[in-house]
Amino acid sequence: MFSFTGLKQFVWFIGVIEDRNDPQGLGRVKVRCYGYHTKDKIQIKTEDLPWAVVMLPTTSPSVSGIGHNPFLVEGSWVVGFFMDGESAQEPCVMGSI
User: Fold this and answer.
1) Residues 55, 93: contact at Cβ < 8 Å?
2) Is 86 helix (H, G, I), strand (E, B) or coil?
3) φ/ψ of residue 86, rounded to 5
4) The model's pTM
5) CB atoms < 10 A from the CB of 69, how many?
6) Which residue among 2, 18, 47, 48 is the one 20 to 30 A from 34 at the CA level?
């Protein structure tokens, strides 16, 4: 899991959703983040992208099966940040654009 200890830089990304079939049913998505992942799907395959959590509004508790599920589809453009900063392994989607 990630740690905020020593996090020195807030790292943004823009990307495109490539997979929304989260095997754990948590609403996570796989995002190809421009500037971090190659456009070449042979070099970095969709299945090799990290799962990204999706930020929901404060009107959705997002716990114990209560609340809303994110509704992003393959091809959706999104903006987010990496919760682990420059390591760029723990993406969080903030919204679609």
Assistant:
1) yes
2) helix
3) -65, -15
4) 0.84
5) 13
6) 2
Q: What does the DSSP assignment read for 22-74?
A: -TT-S--EEEEEBTTB-S-TTTS-GGGSPEEEE---TT---BTTBS------T
What's the angle, vertex CA 41, arms to CA 35 and CA 45, rounded to 5?
Answer: 100
Torsion region of 65: left, alpha or beta (phi above 0 gives left; psi -120 to 50 gives alpha): left
Are the CB atoms for 71 and 54 separated by under 8 Å? Answer: no
DSSP state of 20: -
DSSP state of 90: S
Rg (CA), the chain: 13
From 71, 61, 57, 59, select the one nearest 27 (Cα to Cα). 71
- 3-state secondary structure (DSSP) of residue 96: strand
